[in-house]
Amino acid sequence: MDDVASQFITANETVIQLSVALLLGALIGIERGWVAREQRPGERVAGVRTHALVGLLGGIAALLSAEVSQWSFPLIFLAVTGISLVAWRARMTESRDFSITGLIGLLLTFCFGAIAVAIDLALATAGAVITAVILDNKREIHGLLNQLQSHELDAGLKLLLITAVMLPLLPDRGMGPGGVLNPYEIWWLVVMIASISFIGYFAIRVGGAEKGILFTGLFAGLSSSTALTLHFSRQSRQVSELGPMLAAGILFACGTMFPRILLYAAVVSPSLLPDLLLPIAVMGLALYVPALMLWWTQRRKLKVDRPQLTQNPLELRAALLFGALLALIMVLGEWLREWLGEAGIYLLAASSGVADVDAITLSLTRMSLERIDADTAVVGIVIAAAVNNLVKAGLAAGFGTHQLARHVAAPMGVSLLVGLLLAWWGAVG
């Protein structure tokens, strides 16, 4: 009785798998049929019915390979490929259409049918849906490709290079003084920083100036808040009446640094996040709130251009320099910790914050795992962030109008003082 029940269940599973193979083929066939809907019956090489049957054939081929001969699947696949090539060759002669996308889609349909039966239904379904989406978005994909600039393509390939090629090759062990240098972890941090900058660049690139200064300022903070501060400061001298709105953009960009800091802590050292959350969140709010108030009161006057994005969103040289900077800060941090204790860490944080917050933040969060306590890391990160925003306030005062400098300096000062007080209170408490 148990054998009969087992055979019945197996038979039902096979029927379901073959049905899914048929439906997945029909899904891709519907998309292909829609594209060629204006052609007369018989002019299409493969429509809904053909794709559905090819999906079912792939499932049957997988069954035959399991039950009859392992050669069944490759032989049937070669037969489908040969028949498809003959049909596409004949069609190509008439239409002069040399695209093989439809042929590849048909062969993928056969494979998805086999996967549904022999491997996994969810995997086959996901593959078929993704294939249908790609086939259906030909115009959009080609449009994005036409809009892509050469330096942006170069940046994307370099990001893949440092992520998929270089990262797995690096040793994952401590080296250098005190074993503070782990090449794999340092480069992983470089990849994270490069990815955030890359995303920020394209957020501005895709959104454009028409999304307003709120959008531009927020995402410029992912790419380069310093660059945006300089750009808007100079622009305030050209169009002085837009000073408050430009100041809002600068505050938005500088405020975005603080969610980035929390993100780094959450990824690198989650245990540091509870101590870091209050001072960093308050410092960010001290910039976001006045920025939102300025934006709300001045939004009808918005006529500002976004920053010019002609630079490469990811320079490999810059990535290498950032990795070297991370390594240097880690070594200096270890030496200063042994020599001066906490005071050495704070000195390093202040000097590093003049130029960059990301490197010192990642270094201190990494050191908090083993070499320094959480309070020291939190105070050091807050010092670096405060110094960095102080420098940007100086840039706004030096390159912008007095009006812009006034709108920027007050929130920056409040953010700096409140952050330092909360970090100190948390450390002594």
TrEMBL record:
Keywords of this entry:
Membrane, Transmembrane, Transmembrane helix
Ranges where the MgtC/SapB/SrpB/YhiD N-terminal domain occurs? 18-142
Q: Which InterPro entries match?
A: DUF4010 (IPR025105), MgtC_SapB_SrpB_YhiD_N (IPR049177)
Mind telling me which residue stretches traverse the membrane in this protein?
Answer: 15-34, 46-65, 71-90, 102-135, 186-206, 212-233, 245-264, 276-297, 318-337, 343-364, 376-396, 408-428
- Specify the DUF4010 domain's residue ranges: 191-400
Pfam families according to UniProt = DUF4010, MgtC
Record's protein name: Uncharacterized membrane protein, DUF4010 family
Species for this entry: Billgrantia gudaonensis
